[in-house]
Write a structure and sequence with these properties.
- The protein is an alpha+beta fold.
- Helices cover 39% and strands 24% of the residues.
- It is built from 3 helices and 4 strands; from the N terminus they run βααβββα.
- A 4-stranded mixed sheet has the order 2-1-3-4.
- The two termini are 14 Å apart.
């Protein structure tokens, strides 16, 4: 799985680097470093409300920095669960 977090100007101001840091921590805590690639990208074109996080090449989620745990549970663990 590839998680791409937008770090463009608007997303940066909305806390994209904090989200990246929290995702890195969650990936480590769950031992998923070999199954998830976390990367930064520029403008996903969805920066009106929250930080844009792209999952693989399929979907893009607008993520608020207060819901990183919920996003990880639903969109990462929910998909990667055995």
């Amino acid at each position: 799985m590839i998680l791409s977090v937008c770090v463009g100007s608007s997303c940066h101001l909305r806390g994209s680097y904090r989200i990246i840091s929290e995702l890195q921590q969650l990936i480590e805590e769950h031992g998923l470093g070999d199954r998830i690639t976390l990367q930064a990208n520029f403008c996903a074109g969805r920066c009106q409300k929250a930080v844009a996080v792209k999952i693989d090449e399929d979907s893009c989620v607008e993520l608020d920095s207060t819901d990183v745990d919920g996003f990880f549970a639903d969109h990462v663990l929910g998909v990667l669960a055995p």
